[in-house]
Amino acid sequence: MNLKKTTFLLTLSFLTTSANAAIVRTLDDSRSIEISISKQNLTRITVKDDRIANVFGITGEYVLEADEELGQVFIRPVDPGGFSSMTGHGTNKPIHLTLTTEKGHTQDLCLTPKDQPPEALILEEDKQEMFPSQGSMTRVFIARDEIEDLVQACQEMRIPLGYKVATLDLKLFKSPHLLIREIRGEKLRALTYEVKNLSKLPLILSEDNFTQIPHAKKSAIIAVWMGKRTINPGDRSYVHVIAKL
């Protein structure tokens, strides 16, 4: 198994479009696509206008069937009941895969088995990058290193070359996710949030906490970095959200 690793804990956001029992996601080798799949049934994975060439993962976690004629695959967890003899209940352990396509795309997937009907996963190229706006002669490309460098700059509270601090709208300040800084470059913007736990119980953070808020458009978000996922009462942490302009 060869799963890509990054220097930072980067959890990347995603878009979901449901139609005719299908989930459509945009190919992006700088992020891992996270979806839920059926425990009991096969889930079809296909790439629009392309063919899946190889699939890499942990042997024994899933059953994989390949449709070589159409270049797509079907996957099912090896334990459809999700029962663990050690814990006495379902584990819902995510399946991590990396697939490559004949056109040269590499995509990481995180598939979480759940009690749900099967939905096909359709991967497609980013149409905005394939067809730039009128007047632009070059394809917009954001490298993985650009995202990681920007996250590191946010951690160190630096302003990278080519970026400037944006004026914050005080009307958008909401607790407990307080926007404290935004910096912008030519292609990316970085939003930094201070998160305080004012309750008496641990606060559990997830990516959805920061893709749903009005400060950043969900369709533009490409990375969410969290200093902590669990914040104890009285503690605070910082979250950095990277989005396309």
State which percent range the strand residues make up: 35-45%
Radius of gyration (CA) equals 20 Å
Tell me the count of domains: 2
Question: What coarse outline follows from CA principal-axis ratios?
Answer: globular
Number of helices: 3
Structure summary, number of beta strands:
17
Helix content: under 10%
**Mean pLDDT value:** 78
Structural class: mainly beta
Outline of the structure:
A 6-stranded antiparallel sheet has the order 1-15-17-13-12-11, covered by helices on one side. Mean pLDDT is 78; it is low at 1-20, 80-90 and 130-139.
Give the helix/strand layout.
Layout: E1 10-11, E2 22-26, E3 32-38, E4 43-47, E5 52-57, E6 62-67, E7 72-77, E8 95-101, E9 106-114, E10 120-124, H1 127-130, H2 144-155, E11 164-165, E12 177-184, E13 188-196, E14 203-204, H3 208-211, E15 221-226, E16 230-231, E17 236-244
Please tell me about this protein's structure.
The protein has 245 residues and is mainly beta. The chain has two domains: 10-128, Immunoglobulin-like, CATH 2.60.40; 144-244, no CATH class. The protein is 8% helix and 39% strand. The protein contains three helices and 17 strands. It has helices at residues 127-130, 144-155, 208-211; strands spanning 10-11, 22-26, 32-38, 43-47, 52-57, 62-67, 72-77, 95-101, 106-114, 120-124, 164-165, 177-184, 188-196, 203-204, 221-226, 230-231, 236-244. It has a six-stranded antiparallel β-sheet, covered by helices on one side. Strands 2-10-4-7-6 form a five-stranded mixed β-sheet, with no helix packed on it. The relative contact order is 0.17. The model is unreliable at 1-20, 80-90 and 130-139 (pLDDT under 50).
